[in-house]
Amino acid sequence: MKLKDFYRLAVEVGIKNDPRPREEIERLLQEERKAFEKLEAGDKENFDQDRLFNPFGDSRVLAGDPETEVRRILAGIDMDAAEILLAYILNRDENRKIDLVLAHHPSGRALAQLSQVMALQVDLLTSFGVTPSVAEQLMEKRIGEIERRLLPINHNRTVDVARLLNLPLACLHTPADNCVTRYLSDLFREKSPDRLKDVLEILRGIPEYRNSSRNSVPPKILSGSENSRAGKIYVDMTGGTEGSKDIYEKQAAAGISTLVGMHYSEEALEKAKKANLNVIVAGHIASDTLGLNLLLDQLERESGESLDVVAVSGFERIRHL
């Protein structure tokens, strides 16, 4: 399929798996369209028009012709200059030609806009019973922190290499994270694990986590014990990056007992423990790999086309559908 179609379809899959109601996403997109129409002609040139159909600021086509036919993808979790050069070397062999370099983690303008997708966490928290005003105010502070932290970064370093070597480059962050969040949430709801050891058993039954365990990075209990009751499980794997460190008491008050996430900072973990929450870290790269696999699965199903994926940078292509 063409790169532009691949990208649009990935966004649509991300929306389908988004924890927010479809109506809320459409409302946000409509606001962007209204804002765009109000701009003067000169200002419209600088407007990121992907925002008119894509609610995920951290997912973009960063380089390349949208009309490029995509058959073979070099896909990984972090795709930097080394991986771009690898694609360039592979392209010397016509039988190994790479049509698209696909990253999970954002770079370029997608990295600069990472903080924008964190508002998704507000809707996820409120769906679990956290008071909307509390979730909004705590997340506003955290979003500001992340936005300021990203300001001095050299965003376009990897994008420049791709552009100079004439290699298409895209990143799909929140769409993939939405897929793993939906998948695990549905799985826990279906299997209703009683104890934390049961949650670990479910995770270890998933190929990405099983493989990660073999590489000495297994899912692990950080707070609680194997015999602790799981209770209501909150899957914390989407919305850009780690949320507010002051939210844990509010989550406990809303009836949440167990957090299952990709990673937790020491400060976040200590606050979760003080709130008497169970915490399981499923694994960052394993969770990202699962999310990207689920996204690619659904892309293939929706398009009816099979993609040849060359996996690097911590990623392993495993089909689930």
Quickly describe the structure.
This protein is α/β, with parallel strands linked by helices and 321 residues long.
**Average pLDDT:** 96
Q: What is the CA–CA distance across the termini?
A: 19 Å
Order of secondary-structure elements: HHHEEHEHHHHEHHHEEHEHEHE
Shape: globular
Number of strands: 9
Report low-confidence residues grouped into runs of 5 or more. Answer: none
What's the tally of helices?
14
- What is the strand arrangement across the widest sheet? 1-4-3-2-9
Q: What is the domain total for the residues?
A: 2
Percent of residues in helices comes to 40-55%
Coarse structural class: alpha/beta
Strand content: 5-15%
How much is the radius of gyration in Å? Answer: 20 Å
Major sheet characteristics: 5 strands, mixed
InterPro entries: DUF34/NIF3_sf (IPR036069)
Protein name: NGG1p interacting factor NIF3
Organism: Candidatus Saccharicenans subterraneus
Describe the structure.
It comes from Candidatus Saccharicenans subterraneus. This is NGG1p interacting factor NIF3. InterPro entries: DUF34/NIF3_sf. The chain has 321 residues and is an alpha/beta fold. The chain is built from 14 helices and nine strands. It has helices at 3-16, 22-37, 41-44, 81-90, 108-112, 120-127, 132-150, 157-164, 174-191, 196-204, 207-214, 248-253, 266-274, 284-303; strands at 60-63, 72-76, 100-103, 169-171, 220-223, 232-236, 256-261, 278-281, 308-311. Helix 4 links the parallel strand 2 and strand 3. The mean pLDDT is 96.
